[in-house]
Amino acid sequence: MQLQNTISIASLLAATLLLSFSTALKEGQTCAADRFCDSGLHCETCVANGNVRPRCTRIQPIIPTSKVKGLPFNRYTWLTTHNSFAMMGEKSATGSIILAPTNQQDSITSQLNNGVRGLMLDMYDFMNDVWLCHSFGGRCFNVTAFQPAVNVLKEIQAFLESNPSEIITIFIEDYVTSSNGLTKVFNAAGLRKYWFPVTKMPKNGGDWPTVDDMVKNNQRLVVFTSKSAKEASEGIAYEWRYVVENQCEFQLTSSNCLAVT
């Protein structure tokens, strides 16, 4: 009887160990190599957000239109990156080192190829041009300047050209004061032909045109600016007439935490 119990316990331990090694790790769990992660995941360290422990991470997000088709543009959730241009390890196009904070590990092209469909870009007047800078005080400096905005906009143009059914949204944190500065840089990048006109944007929370209609009309670039005057002067939509941003705090207390229904 004792021998039988010993064999049963040993079998149970072996089965438990086998299960623990054969069960793939889920998204967000720490890992040692890609082979330990579940299907569609890989083992990656995201240094940009301070996470030094490798975790199972989704290789690519699900493109929402691949699951449900024919909905208005605003009825989908689109993956968007913050400070999309601020890539780790970059050297300023001025030749200077960059002392500004970085947010991304991938180039704009890589982000788009991996499912990102919204880009947040900080644009400044700098060196008689429009530059992407992660700066302060409304001014760009050598150590906060990444590259001329036209370079990144040309990457977006190339993606739209190669992917005729995709839609990109750009959110501009706008510090450009030069006359028609944004218009000039978008035209120089060849993006005007994809422009979704502000006159077609619904106000007061109404539904947008369907994704199918936007693709059919080749109006596949949606651009917002943080400067309200540019809607009239340059035909670029003022963000807060059409966009609502949810509250996001690092620390929530009972006094500032609201239930949303």
Please write out the topology.
Layout: H1 2-22, E1 41-44, E2 55-58, E3 80-81, H2 108-113, E4 118-126, E5 129-133, E6 145-148, H3 149-162, E7 168-175, H4 181-188, H5 211-216, E8 221-225, H6 230-233, E9 237-238
Parallel strand pairs: 3-4, 4-7, 7-8, 8-9
Antiparallel strand pairs: 1-2, 4-5, 5-6
Provide tags for this entry.
two-stranded antiparallel sheet, alpha/beta, seven-stranded mixed beta sheet, 23% helix, disordered C terminus, TIM Barrel
How would you explain this protein's 3D organization?
GO terms for molecular function: phosphoric diester hydrolase activity. InterPro entries: PI-PLC_domain, PLC-like_Pdiesterase_TIM-brl. It holds the Pfam family PI-PLC_cat. Keywords: Signal. It is a single chain. This protein is of the alpha/beta class. It has two domains: 1-59, no CATH class; 60-241, TIM Barrel (Alpha-Beta Barrel), CATH 3.20.20. 23% of the residues lie in helices and 16% in strands. The protein has helices at residues 2-22, 108-113, 149-162, 181-188, 211-216, 230-233; strands at 41-44, 55-58, 80-81, 118-126, 129-133, 145-148, 168-175, 221-225, 237-238. The longest helix has 21 residues, at 2-22. The radius of gyration is 24 Å and the shape is globular. 25% of the residues are buried. The model is unreliable at 9-21 and 257-261 (pLDDT under 50).
